[in-house]
Amino acid sequence: ENEVRPLDGTRIVYECSGGGPDLLIVHGGTGDRSRWLPMFPYLEKDFTVCAMDRRAHGQSGDASSYSLQGEAEDVAAVVASRGKPVAVLGHSFGGVVAYEAARMTPQIAKLLLYEPPFRVDPHEATLSRMDDLIARGEQEAATVVLMGEVVSISPDELEAMRGRPSWRDLVSSIGSSIRQHRALAAHEWSPDAARELSTPTLLLIGSRTQSPDLRWSVEHAAQAIRGSKVVV
Q1: Tens digit of pLDDT for each residue in 158-180?
Q2: Which of 26, 61, 66, 68 is geometrically suited to a Cys-Cys bond with 94, CB 3.0 to 4.6 A?
Q3: CA distance 110 to 98
Q4: CA separation (Å) from 60 to 56, 71, 74, 102, 210?
Q5: Which tens digit of pLDDT belongs to each residue from 61-76?
Q6: Residue 91, Cβ neighbours under 10 Å: how many?
Q7: Alpha helix locations (H) across the chain?
Q8: d(CA 110, CA 83)
Q9: Strand-pair category, 201-204 with 86-91
Q10: What angle do CA 187, 29, 8 make, to 5 degrees?
Q11: Strand 22-26 and strand 12-18: pairing?
C-alpha cells in the first residue's frame, strides 16, 4: 500500500502488484479500489498494476473543498509518484478524471477510458430531493433514489446490490456521490481541448450499454481525440 499527497495535502492511497509497465486503474463514482482487485491476477503477469482509492473513497482522505479538477490532480499525483510513464484506465466517473489528468501531465503514456460520461443529465431536482433525505438522516433512501433515478439500474439489480456487503459503504458515501454528479454536470466537454491531447487513447463501451449520454460521450471523444480507437 502506498500513499501520495496532492496539492491540497489530502491522503490518496493506492496499491500495486506484478511486474512490467505501470497500469493505474481509477474506479468509478461509487466503490473503491477493491472493486478492481479481482482483475489483478489477470494483469500482473504483464503489468505492474495499481489501483487507487479516489478521495472520499476507501482509505483515501477528503477535503472541505471539492472539484473535478482536484480529482484529476490526485490521479496526476499518483502517476508522478511512480517516476516513469504510466498507462491509466479510468472507468465511468474515473474515466473523466483520468482524461483531465492526461491533459495535465505527459507522464500518462496511454489512456483507456471505459464509458466516460462526458455528458450527463444534471438531475438537479432529483439531487435536491436526495439532499433533503440526507438532511433527515435517510441516507439509504437517498442511495435508492440515486441508483434508480440517476444511475438508472433496474429494480432487480438494485435489490441484488442491497444484499451485498458493499451496500453499507455506498450508503455511507452518498454525499460524495451527489457532489460528484454535480461536478460532472458542470464539466463542459470541449472538442477543441480534446484535439490538443496527444496521449494514445482507447475508448471502451459495452455492447449492451443503452445510455444515450454514454454513447454520445464515446462517439464525440473518438471524433475529437486524435488517433483514438473505440472497442465495443
Answers
A1: 999 999 988 988 898 898 999 99
A2: 26
A3: 10
A4: 6, 12, 10, 21, 32
A5: 999 999 999 999 999 9
A6: 22
A7: 40-43, 68-82, 93-102, 124-135, 139-145, 155-162, 166-172, 174-186, 191-195, 212-224
A8: 15
A9: unpaired
A10: 70
A11: unpaired
